[in-house]
Amino acid sequence: METFDWIVIGNGLAGAALSYELVRLGLSVLLVDDGNPDSATRCSYGGIAYWSGTNEITRELCQAGIERHRQLSDELETETEFRELDLLLTFPPHVDGESLTRQYEQFAIAPRLISPQEAQEIEPQLNPAAIGGAFTVKHGHVNPIKTVDGFNQAFRRLGGQHMLATVTGLVHINNRVTGIMTASQAYAAGNVVVAAGGNSRRLLHQARLSVPLYHTHAEIVALPKVEQPLRALIMPGIATRFEAEATASDPATDSRWDGPPDEIAPPILDAGMIQFLDGSTYLGQVSRFRTDLGTEAIDAAQSEAQIRQGITSQVPCLANVPGRWRHCLVTFSRDELPLIGPLPGVEGLHLFSGFTSPFAILLPIAQRFASWAMNGEKTALDSLSDRLLGQMLVTRFEKSPPDTTT
Ligand SMILES: Cc1cc2nc3c(=O)[nH]c(=O)nc-3n(C[C@H](O)[C@H](O)[C@H](O)COP(=O)(O)OP(=O)(O)OC[C@H]3O[C@@H](n4cnc5c(N)ncnc54)[C@H](O)[C@@H]3O)c2cc1C
Would the pTM of this model clear 0.85, i.e. be above it? Predict the structure, then answer.
């Protein structure tokens, strides 16, 4: 049986970029994905918040990330549809915009407060009466599906092997992971990296590891074609998400994430929208902090109505455009920083997940992870991976993992 240098589990933005960087350095790589059409990446807006660095590391990553996106189509020989557009972070009429300015001052490029009329000049389809104003900043944008396809094509051209299969477990010899299991056979590798998005925690649980990765059930409405051109990416100016994620990832909730289906925090609506270059448009987004992975407990019709109502009051031309409700799992960590690097106590097993704003920062992190994998080179990112190596965040079960009910 062939033994790969690396097996990468998951072909979202994380696995696609990382597998490409590994193969580019001459390593033999197997990329395995279950082909779920509704991954977080496939439901994503694809916005590149390169303005959003808040400290030296994230500013450096945002800068390196946007530079990479600017030349990625040429490098991959596939169009990622990179462009820069205006981001509008809108807030309701009863809110005083000045009271929100402090939350934006921390960013490398602070979004600017504008009136409803100025926001409408940026996005003519916006109803100025529905908002109290907005914050605006230049934002990068790519088509997420085309970006992943570009990475995949370049990966295969360089000799990477790409396989459609569900990873059902990890193969162990004592304390070492030596490969993966699928329904039909096992595959061997010197190293396995889990980049399986919202499924990562569950996969690692089977390997007797509890990692502080959590997920939301995110729901959007995908409109295949909107005739009116829409220029801006719209998202809420008051970010309730980070507060909700902090509540849901409090260490006290950890046992609940590994237990029977549970709702850790109430759902939130982030009214937003993006139109891609072909006119297809995503309306978003409801996020649910449910510990199960399926959609059984979700009322799709109710969510769709809520999403449509939230954004069509701001952008009336989107009302009644036919579309489809979609659902995905989005993973996040306890502190908005990704969990990357070797997992303590198990040789050959790595994690590459839990990114917030991955389109802004993931590309340079994937490059550095690959160069560490190849040369063991130390980088400024050590402070990120030390979060894993420090063993403070990862619990290793000595016996069988606790029962998990999906
Ligand atoms: C509506 C919405 C808008 C967003 N907008 C933005 C944005 O503008 N900018 C931004 O930076 N981020 C945005 N995000 C977040 C971003 O899309 C995600 O964080 C990112 O795509 C996650 O990528 P990933 O590769 O970690 O996970 P995923 O994209 O979920 O990929 C994981 C892959 O692993 C596969 N997999 C899982 N389990 C297995 C298994 N056992 N075997 C084989 N394969 C498996 C899955 O099918 C999937 O293909 C948005 C998310 C949503 C939902």
Answer: yes
